[in-house]
Design brief:
The protein is an alpha+beta fold and about 350 residues long. Helices cover about 35% and strands about 15% of the residues.
Length: about 350
């Protein structure tokens, strides 16, 4: 059954408006800096010192970033071997941030206005009188913060905040590296270079590539015994960017004229590096003529210039132009005509491949 306010029992006979008493504000206790000018000056000096520590730490961060060898290591008791470059950068940035934080807190607790104030609720509109009152309040706050008298605080705080931004910006800008050009996105493939089976290093005759067969190949000189004397780092990079998959197809099912022109007798070669995040595209479905990336299931149509038909990849696999040499072996007719690997926002910019105009 519904009840009404009049049906509720009274609380000890008191009226609703008298049930709670406004406790009011506690007595104001002035701070030491409010009544002692020496204490105020001492607090201002402490704030300046904290901001100065922050500024010096920011400068030391920049010096360490450019002066210390990133590979320098050392031993810290209780921790063990550490990278000193990272330790110094962490300490200097931490001190920079700590100086700003402690300086701001000490400033607010000792010198900023310390007045209890009650503000009644009011309509959302802002009459001219209220705007004038706000302007007067801001002006009073500026004066009461003592920034007009203690300009050293304003200068040191501005310097600390300004310099603290540098450790955040400089490593990002300096660590971007060179602008992408051909030396970053071209491969070692050259005209006349044989396609060698990976990992045996055996050359492939065009007659050996039957319909539906698949070969994983590398450029001549970078696989098998020929690669034993190459530096490990160089070989790793070549394997990552120059890996190619060769597939034999019936030319009648191929829809792309460019694909036919760059292939030979139904044999086609495409980069194995997925254009999504660079995983090796190594799975071939003979019935559907689809290439699949095992990482994120991007699917490429081998009958239509490896166009993407499913998955997160947004670009087709680059095709390697091939031909046959005098001995009947498959060789590259040229290098890739477009950057291999993952997509990036400047992929269409001229100058990414050798011979392009920058």
């Amino acid at each position: 059954m519904a009840t009404h306010d009049n049906d509720l029992p009274a609380l000890s006979g008191t009226a609703p408006q008298d049930r709670f008493t406004n406790p009011g504000l506690p007595p104001h206790v002035p701070r030491r800096a409010d009544v002692d000018e020496k204490a105020a000056r001492r607090a201002a000096t402490q704030v300046v010192v904290l901001f100065t520590i922050s500024a010096i730490s920011s400068i030391l961060f920049l010096v360490a970033y450019f002066a210390i060898d990133p590979e320098l290591k050392g031993t810290i008791i209780g921790i063990g071997e550490v990278n000193l470059f990272h330790v110094v950068l962490g300490l200097t940035m931490g001190l920079s941030l700590l100086g700003i934080g402690l300086g701001a807190i000490h400033w607010s607790k000792t010198l900023m206005p310390d007045v209890e104030q009650v503000e009644e609720r009011h309509p959302q509109t802002s009459p001219d009188e209220d705007r004038q009152a706000v302007a007067q309040t801001l002006s009073h706050g500026w004066r009461s913060s003592q920034l007009n008298r203690r300009t050293a605080i304003l200068g040191s705080a501005g310097g600390a905040l300004g310099l603290f931004a540098l450790p955040l910006v400089v490593p990002v800008v300096a660590g971007l590296g060179p602008r992408p050009r051909g030396e970053l996105y071209d491969t070692v493939w050259e005209a006349g270079m044989r396609l060698m089976i990976d990992p045996s290093g055996t050359p492939i005759r065009a007659a050996d590539v039957t319909r539906g067969s698949v070969f994983h190949v590398m450029p001549e000189g970078y696989v098998g015994e020929a690669a034993h004397d190459l530096p490990a780092d160089e070989l790793l990079i070549v394997k990552a960017e120059a890996q190619v998959i060769v597939v034999g197809l019936d030319p009648s099912v191929v829809q792309s004229q460019k694909q036919l022109d760059w292939g030979v007798d139904g044999v086609f070669a495409y980069s194995k590096v997925c254009t999504h995040v660079g995983c090796p595209v190594a799975l071939y479905e003979q019935q559907t003529h689809h290439l699949l990336c095992p990482c994120h299931q991007s699917t490429f149509d081998m009958t239509n210039d490896c166009e993407v038909i499913f998955g997160p990849a947004r670009r087709p696999l680059p095709q390697l132009p091939i031909t046959i040499d005098d001995e009947g072996y498959l060789v590259a007719a040229d290098s890739f005509r477009e950057p291999v690997g993952v997509s990036f926002f400047e992929r269409e910019r001229p100058g990414l491949l050798k011979g392009d105009d920058a």
